[in-house]
Amino acid sequence: MRVRAAAMLLALLTAGPALAEERPRQRLGKVTLRVTQVFPETHQALVYDKATNKHAVVNEGELFGKYEIVEVGDDQLIVRVAGRELVLPAEEPTAPAAPATPTSPAKPADPGLLDPYGLATPAPPPAAGPAPLDPYAGIAPAPAEIRVVVAPAGQRAGGTAAPVDPYAPVATPAGPTPAPAPAKPPVVAKPDVAPPPVAPPPVAAPPATPAVEAIRLESMTLKRGELAKALGDFDALHKTIGFVRTGTGVRLTTISPGSYFHGMGLRSGDVVTAINNAPLKTLDDAAAAYARLGSAKKLDLAVVRAGERGTLHFALK
Predict the structure, then answer these.
(1) Residues 6+ apart with CB under 8 A from 266
(2) Do the two domains 33-89 and 220-316 of this chain adopt the same fold?
(3) Is the pLDDT of residue 16 over 80?
(4) How far apart are alpha carbons 217 and 226 in whole angstroms?
(5) What is the residue extent of each domain of the chain?
(6) Which of 98, 193, 195, 282 is most buried, with most CB under 10 Å away?
(7) What sign does the CA torsion over 235, 240, 241, 242 have?
(8) How many C-beta atoms lie closer than 10 Å to residue 45's C-beta?
């Protein structure tokens, strides 16, 4: 009996590992974690979870959802999920596509100027014939009629009578003197009265151009937790601030009044060109600046506003 019990115990001990290996493992499921960029110098990585649609900067040893961050490499991230370790490579940054150069439409060939008379048949020259007859040729002009005017007898040479005034009044036969006609009352012309002057309509003054707010010069203290919360809430972020990338930085198209970023001194139309003296031109630059805020003691934003350059200084506590 003792020999049989020892054999059974030995069989159980040798069959234990085999039974453990045959035990089915927990299913891993679909990997929804994507590594956007790694920062080996700070042992951090920028990741995106497609299941929750959230970005986050994670550190070694942290737990992001169901993923435990094991190690941040130079170009990869090692995570542990469901008892297994996975190696997730970082995505390659994609360069922005160059804008297509518009092509000008082909210019039609110049057909040349058309001669409007090129197709017309020239008129034939007139046929030769006798010269036209002059109806007045050979006819002598009629002599001009000479009118003889005879002066009155009294005005002829040798006469003694005085010259007659053709405009002298004609003598009338003697008779009663007619009564003078009654004098008409003088007509007084009505003075011209000028109409009252009409005042021109008032000209509306052009709307005053709002003054551009100067860039704040004094330093401002920010709480690191409040800044991280404002930057990490992507749902509220896109409702209070709008931006587009330009060749020199990031243009802030809208800043909601009363928002956290409006209180920092940022205004609509500002172009942020650098963060802590690091140029800000691509999404990778923004992600790198966001990852360094965890250990940074200050925050300097280089801003261009209405052609004027300045820097917003912040102390992080």
Answers:
(1) 241, 252, 255, 272, 301, 303, 312
(2) no
(3) no
(4) 22
(5) 33-89, 220-316
(6) 282
(7) positive
(8) 27
Residue 236 dihedral angles phi and psi, to the nearest 5°: -80, -25
**Predicted confidence band at 141 (pLDDT cuts at 50, 70, 90)?**
low
Structure tokens at 117: 């008379």
Which residue do the tokens 């007898």 mark? 153
Sign of the CA dihedral 316, 240, 37, 86? positive
pLDDT at 212: 86
- AA letter at 306: A
313: part of which helix (H) or strand (E)? strand 308-316
CA distances (Å), origin 308, targets 48, 164, 245, 249, 312: 37, 104, 19, 15, 13
Strand locations in 154-270 (E): 220-222, 241-245, 250-255
Output the average pLDDT for the chain.
76
pLDDT at position 21? 47
Q: What is the CATH number of domain 33-89?
A: 2.30.30
CA separation for the pair 197, 201 (Å, rounded): 12
| Predicted confidence (pLDDT) per residue in 143-187, tens digit | 556 666 666 666 665 555 566 676 766 666 566 666 777 777 777
CATH number listed for the domain at residues 220-316? 2.30.42.10
Q: DSSP code of 254?
A: E
pLDDT score at 46: 92
Structure tokens at 4: 């049989």
Are residues 39 and 288 in contact, defined by beta-carbon separation less than 8 angstroms? yes
Edge-first strand order for the sheet with 44-49 is: 33-39, 44-49, 54-59
